[in-house]
């Protein structure tokens, strides 16, 4: 397994990733709809976002990575936001967000993916990352805890109005 930056060579793999969400996690499929509609434009928007170019209001520069396996399937995506200055990010969004394709969940890929991205966050100057999960998302909370996440508290989400568990994770080695 490895993390790669989004690129056009993975169009078919992304389509399978999106289809997995569309069939098995409809609620979260919408986050990847743009990639399904116009893959080339989508990849360019992710590259632009990493450079802070053409950011929508309230967004910060953010690196996106795809976790691929040896069969060149995209099994997960992870995002590293360069800062959490906007109130939404500092309260409930955090530095790092991730998704595992529904067909690959429960197999340890989330834990591995987060471990792989922490040094990349460190290279971006993030020494301690805020990572959040829905309070009742035990799988995601376990991913964070297995990567050294130190529980801070539960907050009531504002944009997503439900309880959010907040953790801090060392990115540059403990």
Automatic annotation (TrEMBL):
Keyword Flavoprotein: no
GO MF, one example: acyltransferase activity
Any Pfam family the entry gives: Acetyltransf_3
Enzyme Commission no: 2.3.1.-
Residue ranges occupied by any N-acetyltransferase domain in the UniProt entry: 1-169
Organism: Photobacterium rosenbergii
PROSITE patterns: GNAT (PS51186)
EC class: transferase
Keywords: Acyltransferase, Transferase
Protein name (record): GNAT family N-acetyltransferase
Domain of life per record: Bacteria
PANTHER family according to UniProt: ACETYLTRANSFERASE
């Amino acid at each position: 397994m490895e993390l790669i930056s989004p690129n056009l060579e993975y169009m078919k793999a992304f389509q399978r990733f999106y289809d997995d969400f569309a069939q098995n996690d409809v609620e979260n499929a919408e986050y990847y709809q743009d990639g399904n509609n116009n893959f080339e434009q989508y990849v360019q928007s992710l590259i632009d976002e990493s450079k802070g170019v053409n950011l929508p209001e309230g967004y910060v520069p953010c690196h996106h990575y795809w976790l691929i396996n040896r069969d060149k399937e995209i099994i997960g995506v992870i995002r590293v936001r360069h800062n959490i200055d906007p109130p939404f990010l500092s309260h409930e969004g955090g530095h790092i967000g991730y998704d595992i394709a529904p067909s690959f969940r429960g197999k340890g890929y989330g834990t591995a993916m987060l471990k792989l991205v922490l040094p990349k966050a460190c290279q971006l100057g993030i020494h301690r990352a805020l990572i959040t999960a829905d309070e009742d998302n035990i799988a995601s909370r376990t991913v964070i805890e297995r990567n050294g996440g130190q529980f801070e508290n539960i907050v009531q989400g504002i944009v997503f109005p439900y309880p959010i568990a907040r953790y801090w994770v060392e990115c540059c080695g403990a």
